[in-house]
Predict the structure.
Amino acid sequence: MDENIQITVIKKGVEKDFEVPNNVGLNLMEFLKAAEHPEIEGMCGGMALCATCHIKVLDGSSLLDELNDDEAATLETLPQVFENSRLSCQIKLNEKIKTLKIEIV
Amino acid sequence: MITTDISIIGAGPAGLFAVFEAGLLKLHTHLIDYLPQPGGQLSEVYPKKPIYDIPGYPTVIAQELVDKLLKQNEPFKPGYTLGERIEALEKRGEQDFVLTTDKGTQINSKAVIIAGGLGCFEPRKPEVPELNRFEGGNGINYMVLDPEKFRNKKLVLAGGGDSALDWTIHLSQIAAEVTLVHRSESFRGAPDSVNKVFELSKQGKVNLLLNSNLTKVNGDSILKEVVVQNKADEDSRAIATDELILLFGLSPKLGPIESWGLNLDKNAIEVNMEDYSTNISGVYAIGDINIYKNKLKLILCGFHEAAIVSHSIYKYINPGVKYTLKYTTVNGVKAF
């Protein structure tokens, strides 16, 4: 069913709420870029290779697709990761997700 | 000093195709790239990935496309300066530019094409205080250019990707002592490399510190030891070492281009979409690094821009000369 996803983005301690239709057909990296978050560069275009869209998922992770091999391998190469680290380009915004709270690393 | 008609900064697909298009107009080119091989992102980031939107190729592997571009350029014998980064762009006058690399190489050209893609790939650095104290030959390295530098030395490597694994295996054969520090308990690299590293650890040839983070680097003018903390018991230990090699991959940065006086929009160079000129006459930008209305960051758009920019530069170098477009089907490709 077409509904909105509530996305809370925390950047440098400041929270901002967004609503996005669950059939928007974007991944989270594309959404964050469109929402004018220049820190999210997404330079490789969504191939889980450059890690310039690294985020922490604070809430809602159980509804997301699991880490795929490419994403896990790229996270493995980074100097610093967190238990809830993800590459936002590998998170598809879809009807499984109702709310999502993330922090830009 | 190297002299040419056009300096091309960036040897990715757009820069490579500009060599061909300029060659058709009898303009000589010299390519400069910070990466050690031509191909840009295609060779460095995704060499084995298929690309589906190159006209005429239902699918082509990224490295294969690069190889074909190199082959296509052979008649025009472009010059190459690889593994060096352009630090400075100096305009001495119209049709007179000097580029200087980080290693002091200078290239004099009549025009400059910036085809820098995402910018320079620079090493990712961990958040360890005072790393910069030991950079530049005093014990801290972010890549292995010449393995012989590490012969008979005590080494600490840090990282968990394929390059950390591969260099651990290689350097364990020539170094006096090798320690590999990795954040987690396991590796996701190529299974052969992972098995080999665990085997070397069993044989006592590699000191493997898993689930551990590098927290400190110590020394006076040169690096003497690194401090590594185990994440489980928070136990810290100091390891005496001659060299620390940090292998956390590469991340693209715009780099020195930012300071050349070009009009920028975020991380892209603003161009006039009629001729892909920048605000500095004689300097042009094509491919992923430029921005204009309705820009699409696609390889095929970079190819189109390479053709247009070559004609723009022909006009810049030969003002008032009328050029009639010649087709390769009629004229073929006349090698230099």
About this structure: Chain B has a mean pLDDT of 94. The helical segments of chain B are 13-24, 41-44, 62-73, 162-171, 191-202, 299-317, 328-331. The CA atoms of residues 157 and 180 of chain B lie 5 Å apart. The interface with chain A takes residues 41, 45-46, 49, 118, 124-127, 159-161, 164, 183-184, 187-189, 246, 248-249, 251-252, 266-267, 297 of chain B (CB under 8 Å).
